[in-house]
Amino acid sequence: MAESAAPNPDPTPTSTSISTPIIPLAAAPGERASWDRPLLTVLAWSAAELLFVYNPWQISSRLRVAVLRLFGANIGPGVIMRPRVRVRFPWKLKIGANSWIGEGVWIHNQDKVTVGADTVISQETFLTTGSHAHRTDMGLRTRPITIGDGVWITSRCMLLGGVTIGDGSLARPMSRVHGTFPPNSIIDGIPATQVGTRFNEST
């Protein structure tokens, strides 16, 4: 009696294959259009950021703030800025008075980022205003980020371009935030949604 053929463990798909286009990244438009400054200014900022802002050994928050202001950032009085902060373009950054920017925060602001007064952005949070036209030419697309007064963005959140967060809101750790949220929101999840209110009448 002949042995039966063993089943093929990895059968070849019989469906018609789809040709997937490859977008040539060398021709993708828009990167330098987001600079808004000459090349020499961008290079000078890159060096200053590494030496005085990102530097984990630098213990002076006042020095970090002073260097950011020197390159055009609008930063109010009393702002505390911890080590290892990164800012893509300081001339597109505005931070209100007495806010705290935690260690390792990365503000990748190819568009404007506005942070209100008395607001906390905690450790390792990433704010990015940029995306790409992924179905066409991978051209850069940017939208601003606006964070109100008295907001707490807790650790390791991600805020995407176009975000608006109302006054007094709180984003829980590791939330991916996209869209608009009213004042006094508690924001949580991937993708983030409003799951409650931070303050009530008895607070």
Structure description:
The structure is a single chain. This protein is an alpha/beta fold and 203 residues long. It has one domain: 3 Solenoid (UDP N-Acetylglucosamine Acyltransferase, domain 1), CATH 2.160.10. The protein contains 2 helices and 20 strands. It has a 7-stranded mixed beta sheet. Strands 1-4-7-12-15-18 form a 6-stranded parallel beta sheet, covered by helices on one side. It has a 5-stranded parallel beta sheet with strand order 3-6-9-14-17. A hairpin with a 2-residue loop joins β19 and β20. α1 runs antiparallel to α2. The N and C termini lie far apart (83 Å). The mean pLDDT is 91.
Principal-axes shape call: globular
Structural class of the secondary elements? alpha/beta
Number of strands: 20
- Rounded to the nearest angstrom, the radius of gyration is 22 Å
Please name the fourth-level CATH homologous superfamily: Hexapeptide repeat proteins
Report the average pLDDT across residues.
Answer: 91
Helix content: 10-25%
Biggest pleated sheet: 7 strands, mixed
CATH class categorisation = Mainly Beta
Secondary structure layout plus pairing:
Layout: H1 39-53, H2 61-70, E1 74-75, E2 80-81, E3 86-87, E4 93-95, E5 100-101, E6 106-108, E7 113-115, E8 120-121, E9 126-128, E10 130-132, E11 140-142, E12 145-147, E13 152-153, E14 158-160, E15 164-165, E16 170-171, E17 176-177, E18 180-181, E19 185-189, E20 192-197
Parallel strand pairs: 1-4, 2-5, 3-6, 4-7, 5-8, 6-9, 7-12, 8-13, 9-14, 12-15, 13-16, 14-17, 15-18, 16-19
Antiparallel strand pairs: 10-11, 19-20
